[in-house]
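Here is one record:
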Amino acid sequence: MKHIILAAALGALASFSGTASAKADCKAYPQAEWMKEADAKAKIEAQGYVIDKFKVSGNCYEIYGKNKEGKKVEIYYDAKSLEPVKSEIEK
């Protein structure tokens, strides 16, 4: 019985830690220093991305959309410099 409880607890911990690391860790800046959302969207689209969803995620800008090749992307950007912090691209 103890082994079952321990296995369940370890499984729950593993699934929690997996979702906790899914987000990007962007540097925190005062919002007054962030690039304006409209400017960020325009700059990203100028790079060839089609944005389906644009949102603020913690201290990052996050997009869901497609790249030039039409592959689905999820990209986190630094809200001040708009440098990509983390990206996932469909294979």
